[in-house]
């Protein structure tokens, strides 16, 4: 290694709050020579857009720090947590992995994650950082932060005689618009929920339940509270929109891309996703975004989530793992990641990052005070499955909202 690259490495080790936080205990916090080394296994969910950012960075890192060999494994996003659970159970977890902030309490409670141990609050947005925290300890670096938007098809609005420049602002208006956007045979609908997906079910119902003044779990997380007037009303609303019989390999995303669905709740990444599903889907002309609606008499609730980079508590090369994270999280990379992949790294001052459509950033800034990351519970997977069962049962007409809410609360009594 030449003197220049050595100097840059030592500076990074001194300045980066992540590098000062290795936490694994298997090697010194900072090796005597300051050089990362070893074979690093990395698991992540991957998209073509993010691949354009991550893969070149991986190759650049290995070239610059020749003592490191990185083996990435790309896992479909809906399989990543299950694969991680299996790996942890078998004692074969990767050194470094992408993790949803909502799963951190469960993993941290079982001692699977290496805490950063020292504050990184100076580097990241506090709300995003909180979503990577459990019992006062930070367990990763937030790398993909989003709040939910209402996506809508401008062409479908125009066909139905609705003004594409005046999207609905309340859930009541969403229901009214949906009636006008639904065809007689039900093959085209207004708002379509993303059904059968635990993460999206939690976020969709979170907006409705809390918007009605209720909760999914009690504030202390010890009791399920869906079987209330607010919870039942939210499930009734949920079951009254869309057509659960419509199907697409990409779920609601695919139905929106084909035009079968005129509205969808999703995050920032979908702005780049939809044109890959159909190149005719031009943002601002064929589809658009709006702030997430609220109930007329309710508080604004904007579901949010954060993906982050986390390190296994069992890794033997924690310094190298955190050093690679630090390399991936540089400010210039955050800007590139936003531009190339529509993925926002929530560094302090993310509001000023360039790369995303300004309208999207403006909506996120305005929505941020109402961001809600949902229940923080070690039994998130159990909660999400039970909530998905409840929501899907109502959407398919298999249960009344009242019965679905009672069944959810009963399932959670066994889990909590």
Q: Which features characterize this protein?
A:
six-stranded mixed sheet; disordered N terminus; 15% strand; alpha/beta; single chain; 416 residues; 2 domains; D-Maltodextrin-Binding Protein, domain 2
Overview of this protein structure:
Keywords: Signal, Transport. Residues 1-20 form the signal peptide. With 416 residues, the protein is an alpha/beta fold. The chain folds into two domains: 3-147 and 305-365, D-Maltodextrin-Binding Protein, domain 2; 149-303 and 373-415, Periplasmic binding protein-like II (D-Maltodextrin-Binding Protein, domain 2, 3-Layer(aba) Sandwich). Helices cover 41% and strands 15% of the residues. The chain contains 16 helices and twelve strands. It has helices spanning 3-15, 48-64, 80-89, 104-109, 126-130, 154-159, 171-181, 198-211, 229-239, 251-258, 270-277, 318-328, 331-341, 358-367, 380-395, 401-415, and strands spanning 38-44, 68-74, 96-100, 133-134, 137-138, 141-147, 149-153, 189-191, 261-266, 287-291, 302-311, 371-372. The strands form three sheets. Strands 1, 2, 3, 6, 11 and 12 form a six-stranded mixed sheet that branches. Strand 1, helix 2 and strand 2 (68-74) form a beta-alpha-beta unit. Helix 2 runs antiparallel to helix 13 (331-341), helix 8 (198-211) packs across helix 15 (380-395) and helix 9 (229-239) crosses helix 15 (380-395). The longest helix has 17 residues, at 48-64. It is globular and about 70 Å long. The termini are far apart.
């Amino acid at each position: 290694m030449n003197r220049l690259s050595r100097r840059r490495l030592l500076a990074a080790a001194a300045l980066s709050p992540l590098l000062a936080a290795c936490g694994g205990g298997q090697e010194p916090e900072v090796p005597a020579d300051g050089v990362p080394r070893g074979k690093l296994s990395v698991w992540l969910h991957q998209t073509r857009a993010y691949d354009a950012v991550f893969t070149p960075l991986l190759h650049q890192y290995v070239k610059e720090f020749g003592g490191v060999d990185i083996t990435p494994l790309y896992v479909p996003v809906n399989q990543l947590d299950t694969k991680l659970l299996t790996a942890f159970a078998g004692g074969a977890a990767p050194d470094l992995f992408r993790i949803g902030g909502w799963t951190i309490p469960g993993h941290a409670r079982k001692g699977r994650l290496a805490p950063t141990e020292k504050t990184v609050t100076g580097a990241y947005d506090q709300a995003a950082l909180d979503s990577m925290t459990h019992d006062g300890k930070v367990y990763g670096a937030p790398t993909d932060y989003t709040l939910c938007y209402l996506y809508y098809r401008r062409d479908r609005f125009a066909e139905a005689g609705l003004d594409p420049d005046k999207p609905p602002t309340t859930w009541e208006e969403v229901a009214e618009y949906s009636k006008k956007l639904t065809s007689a045979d039900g093959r085209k609908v207004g708002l379509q929920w993303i059904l059968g997906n635990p993460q999206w079910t939690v976020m969709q119902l979170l907006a409705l339940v809390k918007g009605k003044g209720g909760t999914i779990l009690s504030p202390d997380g010890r009791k399920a509270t869906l079987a209330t007037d607010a919870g039942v009303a939210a499930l009734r609303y949920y079951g009254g929109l869309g057509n659960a019989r419509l199907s697409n390999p990409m779920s609601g995303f695919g139905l929106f891309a084909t035009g079968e669905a005129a509205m969808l709740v999703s995050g920032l990444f979908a702005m780049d996703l939809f044109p890959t599903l159909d190149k005719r889907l031009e943002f601002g002309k064929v589809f658009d975004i709006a702030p997430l609606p609220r109930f007329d008499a309710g508080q604004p609730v904007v579901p949010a989530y954060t993906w982050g980079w986390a390190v296994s508590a069992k890794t033997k090369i924690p310094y190298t793992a955190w050093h690679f994270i630090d390399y991936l999280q540089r400010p210039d990379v955050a800007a590139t990641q936003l531009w190339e992949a529509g993925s926002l790294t929530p560094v302090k001052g993310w509001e000023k990052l360039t790369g995303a459509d300004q309208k999207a950033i403006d909506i996120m800034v305005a929505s941020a005070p109402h961001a809600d990351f949902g229940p923080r519970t070690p039994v998130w997977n159990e909660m999400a499955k039970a909530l998905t069962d409840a929501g899907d049962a109502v959407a398919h007409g298999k249960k009344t909202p009242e019965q679905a809410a009672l069944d959810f609360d009963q399932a959670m009594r066994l889990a909590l």
